[in-house]
Amino acid sequence: MNAQMNSVEIKNLDLHFGAVKVLQDLNLTIGQGEFLVLLGSSGCGKSTLLNCIAGLLDVTAGQIHIGGKNVTWAEPSDRGIGMVFQSYALYPQMTVEGNLSFGLKNAKVPKDEIAKRVARAAEVLQIEPLLKRKPAALSGGQRQRVAIGRALVRDVDVFLFDEPLSNLDAKLRADLRVEIKQLHQTLGNTMIYVTHDQIEAMTLADRIAIMKGGRVMQLDSPSEIYNRPRNLYVAEFIGSPTMNMVDGALAATQFSSPLGEISVEGYAFDGGAPDATPAVLGIRPEHIASGAAAAQMPIRLDSTVELVEPLGSDTLARVNANGAPFWVRLDGQATLRPGDALPIGFDPARIHLFDKASEERL
């Protein structure tokens, strides 16, 4: 990706609050028109990084470039960004139209240009019938659309979203998630989006940056992160329920654990199979066959059902195989009860192996 194609570049960024290192030597390049999601649990530094890009926090060291220009110490208004916050932060005394146009009036944008931008934003977000209403007369979803519209009228290249859907109910979140994706397809602007919700990340992102302790643990496409997690943290963070993990020892192509000896000959090692090392084997619940289908798998185990969670479209069962707990995803019509015997099995090509000490993928 060449320099002129990069929309946002973060170089060796540090942010310290006293002795606390919130961001550490962070490097990130976001392409023109890319939808990048910053994903992680609370306290990982994702919103802090977004606030640094926006200019709301002064960095300790490093540089931030937007559109090829060094904006590390520029005012937020001079960075060419539009920001949507978790809280709607609308002016209650103003109409929707007033909220959308307020920033433009302060920036002395000509009246006809303001009217044109407000009309375009209202059309894109389908809030034209709401322009004369005040925020108190709007639903949560409508208020969030107005908040997005306020960023949209700035006519900038980069949009920053800080957990914009976290205050909404589940259905509204799903609806607005679709609208944000369509908005990105329509506008083609660069979007950087912070969330702790992995479904939002997987469905919206071109690439996901998974963060922990102020560092990026993996930066990849959603499919690469799901199919080839780089380390144990990413493997356990992505997926619901989480990836099943079993501790053991790896010697050449044999994995020894409470499950017994498992041949991992079908596994594609990143740097050749190690001679002997403590390792962790991971397998996702959806990659475990059960019942009659388990008999067709190279690796087969007997298990006992401990817990059943019917979800409608599918059923989750927690089982115990030789003392190791496993989550298994089954058909929604499965009729299992705690205590039932359930044969399970999987293909070695579907497993993930991690070094126990470094937690890195083998």
UniProtKB/TrEMBL annotation:
Q: What is its EC number?
A: 3.6.3.20
| CDD domains in the cross-refs | ABC_MalK_N
Question: For this protein, what is any one GO molecular function term?
Answer: ABC-type transporter activity
Q: Name the SMART domains for this protein.
A: AAA
The domain of life is Bacteria
What are the record keywords, sorted?
Answer: ATP-binding, Hydrolase, Nucleotide-binding, Transport
Claim: Transferase is one of the keywords in the record: no
| EC top class, as a word | hydrolase
Task: Give any single GO term for biological process.
Answer: carbohydrate transport
PROSITE patterns in alphabetical order? ABC_TRANSPORTER_1, ABC_TRANSPORTER_2
Query: What Gene Ontology cellular-component terms does the record carry?
Result: ATP-binding cassette (ABC) transporter complex, substrate-binding subunit-containing
Instruction: Domain (ABC transporter): give its ranges.
Output: 8-238
What's this protein's family per the entry?
A: Belongs to the ABC transporter superfamily.
- Designated name of the protein: sn-glycerol-3-phosphate import ATP-binding protein UgpC
